[in-house]
Amino acid sequence: MAQLVQRYLDRIRAEHTGVTDGALADYIPELARVDPDGYGLSLSSVDGFVYESGDTAVEFTIQSVSKPFTYALALAHLGADAVDAVIGVEPSGEAFNEISVDHLTKTPKNPMINAGAIAAVSLIPADSPGERFAMIQDFYSAFAGRRLELDEEVYASEKATGSRNRAIGYMLQSFGVLDDDPDEVLDVYYRQCSLRVTSTDLAIMGATLARGGTCPTTGTRVADASVIKRTLSVMVTCGMYDAAGDWVSAVGMPAKSGVGGGIVAVLPGQLGIGTYSPLLDAKGHSVRGVRLCRSLSEQLGLHFLTVSRDSRATLRAVYEPAEGIRVYEAHGDLLFSGAEQLVRTAERERADSDVAILDVTGVDDIDDAARALLSDMSQALCADGKQGFLVDPDGTVVGARADLEAIRFPDVGSALTAAHEWLAQHQRIPG
Ligand code: GLN
């Protein structure tokens, strides 16, 4: 049953391959030169298992996807009160590069628009711009679980053409938001935007956020849960700028996009998603990336208001009542991430057993994505020359699928009897 989840992701990605709307960012030549067809999707579970589909090894510049991470670094060093005194948390409803501050406080409205992001850079405590950038680079790299490098050419171009950001920097200085030389702060901002990532890096960075600040691939604790909670909150309300409302209703995951073509989306407690496609809409978001996230959310049931409980607890027990038979006992709410974890566990262990019994007696609720995945799992087992049985007294997984009735049992006892019979028929009687 190799790669069930992989096939889902490949299929959902393929739905948007034909989309060629949008335009490459062209404010600097380096971004206008990239291959417009580049298209990658990566998904990392909170335990660090990464699925990749398409151009997931293509490097691009992180651009504004950097903003939540620098904000998190500022929070980690200064605490929320000190950061709040300089940067608000209200959605601005404006474009990312609007030259604006809050009317009353004269501070940037939030850290996801350029004004707030530049202010966040200035808060990182360091003695020099070089040291400040090194802290940022180290911090992002810890989120990604690998060293992220600077794209020197993009950096040089950003710096040469950044009039709008300079206007924002000097405006912030005039309002007393920036204590440091605006050009020095901007230099670090341009460098942070020019760090190179892949969609897989973004997925792992997202999974680090999803896991409350621990990188799933290295196990390193990068930031406190309180810092992550605040960062994710601002991503919900402000991450997609003036499209934030639309995004929250259609996709329902804290997210951040960048004009390099990347989007990071996070399902807290469950997974991180990274997408790459450099053709952008009028608001600066990747056209295919937005559509892809929307489809993933719809088809896998990833909206954060649908997914209310932590699905890591889904698999309550795995036991071997007899040689060649393994029982997987699921409970609670079974949603995409929980089903993914279950399928992956069964897949990893499939060499060790001939019959897998999935006991869903204790499952309270299941969504369509999980139901589809688990019914496919039973079929995939058969295709592998193994057998899958379901203990599903209430028809939770089987639902209306008549083809699964033959493998459905009311209790573990009867499933075990069937499993022994199957082993005997297939001459796989232990001993
Ligand atoms: N470097 C870009 C800028 O500051 C990043 C913008 C973005 O990705 N939205 O204008």
TrEMBL record:
Entry keyword set: Acetylation, Hydrolase
Keyword presence, Acetylation: yes
EC number: 3.5.1.2
Presence of keyword Hydrolase: yes
Domain of life: Bacteria
Catalytic activity: L-glutamine + H2O = L-glutamate + NH4(+)
PROSITE patterns (alphabetical): STAS
One GO molecular-function entry: glutaminase activity
One GO process term, biological-process aspect: glutamate biosynthetic process
Positions contributing to substrate binding: 64, 114, 158, 165, 189, 241, 259
Enzymatic class: hydrolase
InterPro entries: Beta-lactam/transpept-like (IPR012338), Glutaminase (IPR015868), STAS_dom (IPR002645), STAS_dom_sf (IPR036513)
Start and end residues of each STAS domain: 315-397
Assembly description: Homotetramer.
Similarity annotation: Belongs to the glutaminase family.
Name the record gives this protein: Glutaminase
Gene: glsA
